[in-house]
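SAMPLE LOG
Freezer: B-3
Tube label: C17
Construct: single chain, 149 aa
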Amino acid sequence: MKMYRLEKLRDEKDMLKKEMAKEIGVVESVYSEWENGNLSIPTKRIYQLANYYKINIDYLFELTNKRKHIISKQNIDILKVASRLKIMRKELKLTMRDLAKELNTSASAICNYENGKFLILSPFLIQICKKYGYSIDWVLGRSEQKLIK
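STRUCTURE (predicted):
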């Protein structure tokens, strides 16, 4: 099952999978698994791909059909991500336990994400942003627009 818009974006650049894999520093088989939807793309690689294509992550993951030109010159600021996850959870009036239950993980994992000990796993990030309408780009600090529009 093809997922996301990776193939479309790569085709726009007239690149082969092996060329794209080399461009972002992964082996072709891993990139191919991402493009085919068989393997989750790590959060840092999502950020890297979006910057490479100069697009919003929300468009990449089909949370919106609005393609925006976004590029971040910095790496992910894990403390900013942590802060925004906490803001999102509180706005949704969810406890860490409630959110953990929704994501089928532990409250301690949510606590670690919100305290900046670990970067949130991409499947969790995509799931909660899709469900509640928050922008992945906002959570990762690439945009100041909080909600997907």
